[in-house]
């Protein structure tokens, strides 16, 4: 058991204790642990997770940025959930939570994280927003990958990462599928490891225990979200 993280009763789980602990280790690695502070602008990175828009609204209300770009079109994994596109649905949710329309910019074409960054940069530039620091708001296990991607594609800005403040077990409950969540953690870690060589991101140190956990989960079949070789 990892200190500070409860392991649910076995009757409530479909994965083993070792797999649970390996997943928690990777979950914690994916989160950057940045101290959130005021930035020039924010980007809400599109995905299946509406918690990104909720967190964006909370951080806007706290006065941490004057403008946010919601970025994302559609993908096979989000088309049914967000038929009008990820960014459009994020915007609607943020408006419902009190974010004023004039604070929201839309980028509706991005199909991957690199496009989220580069196309949102273009939107901010066209809007005349000068960006020295950037708050990247993502789903919890995507913080490190979004950070590494932004440092590669927009190296001149200071990057601060944020996500919905959920523990691993609470996130699993919100998704309702243990296997899928662990698959997503493993898939994002594969991207953190492999994307630098492809020119998509800067290198990130992967501690040995995290890499070992990754290999064990891969060997156990948590592989539905891997990129093609």
From TrEMBL:
This is YdcF family protein. It comes from Streptomyces katrae. Residues 52-156 form the DUF218 domain. It holds the Pfam family DUF218. CDD domains: YdcF-like (cd06259). It comes from the Bacteria. InterPro entries: Cell_Envelope_Assoc, DUF218, Rossmann-like_a/b/a_fold.
